[in-house]
Every structure is written in C-alpha cells, then in structure tokens.
Amino acid sequence: MRALFIGNPQATTATPRSRDVIVRALASDMAVDTVLTEYRGHARELVQRAAEEGYDLVVSFGGDGTVNEVVNGILALPAKQRPLYAALPGGSANVFVRALGLPANPVEATGAVLEALHSGSRRTVNLGHIDGPDGGRYFTFCAGFGWDAEVVHEVERQRQRGRRATPALYTAIALSLFLRGGMGGDPSLSVEVPGRPPVRNLFFVLVTNTTPWTYAGPSPVQPTPRSRFELDLDVFALTRVDTITTANVLRMMFSAKGVPPRGRGYRTWHNCAEFTIRSQHLRPFQIDGEYLGHRQQVNFRSVPKALRIVA
User: Fold this and answer.
1) What helix, strand, coil percent values describe the chain, rounded to 5?
2) How many CB atoms lie within 10 A of CB 242?
3) What's the rounded Cα separation, in Å, for the pair 66 and 43?
4) Most buried by CB count within 10 Å: which residue of 169, 220, 254, 284?
C-alpha cells in the first residue's frame, strides 16, 4: 500500500516530533510520502495529486479544518479514483476524529488506524452538504449560523495575530461575545424544512451530522444527542436567550444525555434530508469550525454513505 501523509504544521497540537513518530509507525507497514500544507485549501489540492499518482491511502494529521479540506478533495474525484482516508487528531478539538471513536492522542490514534488497516475495517459515513459555487461544500460534523460562527470568525482573527486556537481561547471568546450580547438581540434566522411550516425568530442555529457538536476540553457538548453519522442531519435553534433559559440549555448541553428533543427556549429537528436556513440580513456562517463569511441563506442536504474511511 502507498500512502500520502498530509500534515498541517500550523495545527494546534501537531508537533514535528509527534509527526515524525507517526510517519515512522506508518512507514513500518507501507510506503509513505510526506507533504506539509502551506496555505488554506492546499490539502484539497494534495488529494488531487494523490489520485493522479495512484496512492491507495491519504492520511491527514491536523485539525477539523484539515479534515474538511481532505474530505472535499476526495469527494471532488470520480468514485473510482478516490483513495481510502484516515484522519489523525492534530487540532484543538478534533471533533470528527473523536466522534468516530478514535483516541484523542495522535500516536494512539495511529495505532488504531494501523489495526483497522490490518483487519480490513472500513466505515462509510453520511456527510452534510451546502449549496454554493463549484458544487458547494461538504461538512463532516457541524455548521452554524450566528453566535458560534462569530466565535469561529474571531478565533481566526486571533490566530492571524499569532495566538494558538486552544479550547481556552474559544471559551474566552464565546463568553465575551455572550456577555456583550452577541448571542441575543438578533432573532433574524428561520429554518424551513420541506413539508413543515417555517420556524422564524431564531437567535442562532446549529446543524449537526453527529454528536457531539464540539468539545470543551475533554467534555462533549451535545445540543443534538440523537445525531449520528448513519442518519440525516439534525438542527438545533435557540428561540429565547434570557439568562435563565440560556444557562439551562448550556447545562443540558454538557450533561451526559445532552439536550432533550423538546424544551423551553429552543427547537430541534431530527434526521432531516434537506432544509434551508435564512436570515433577514447577513450573519456569520461556519462549517466544521471554518468561517465562510456572512450569508443570508444556506441550503442544506444530507449525503448518505458519502465517505469511506479507515476507523
């Protein structure tokens, strides 16, 4: 087997030492070529190279942004040219990798991937998709309109100034925006599911392809605990943002069971094949922790059995 190892040197926890250890472990079982990303979108381009040069496997070592680029690169290829994919955790949250059940430690995750390769273990997962130019974009675990996207946007601005995207930074920015009213005061969003009446006056909306939505350090955050890679998409929206309601919703998100399907101050939709989120004006939008600009409308659909991975 030939593998192309794609490493993101800017990923939060992907150190040169850990990268060398992982590459040596992989090279004991296969022929491995290593390349490091140099700019946003580079990983997607490298997947095209992997297809052209006949690699059997692509291994990424980075955060959820790197995973998203690789996935979109693979799915842009004709089905017969798509290599197998294995993702290793090198970012701050690594939601996709951890949701697959792989260890959060990258060396331990490498061992799990090698065991899966030896045993022939493969997994096929559903993905989410948003409309857009050049065929749109796939996302692996979440998309967000409003407050969480504003958090992601601010984190990206801080990273450009040299700060590392740690869980503490995300938490500090999220809390700061909340205290400044960034979560409330703007019920401009609506969710439209075919065959159902639209639900309006929403403060922010999350779309999930699995649970958890994200992690606060070691703790999973679960607004949609019924969401699964094997099902269509779930949606969570806040309908109220007063202090008591918000505190109660956050408490449930951090609980072992997550947020119940029904409750005060929020709405949920489960296992939706397609829907649209609209805003009365431009608001920040993100997928898989990557800010995609301010938008007024996004069309979503679930893509069954979209990606084959080693896990």
Assistant:
1) 30, 35, 35
2) 10
3) 7
4) 284
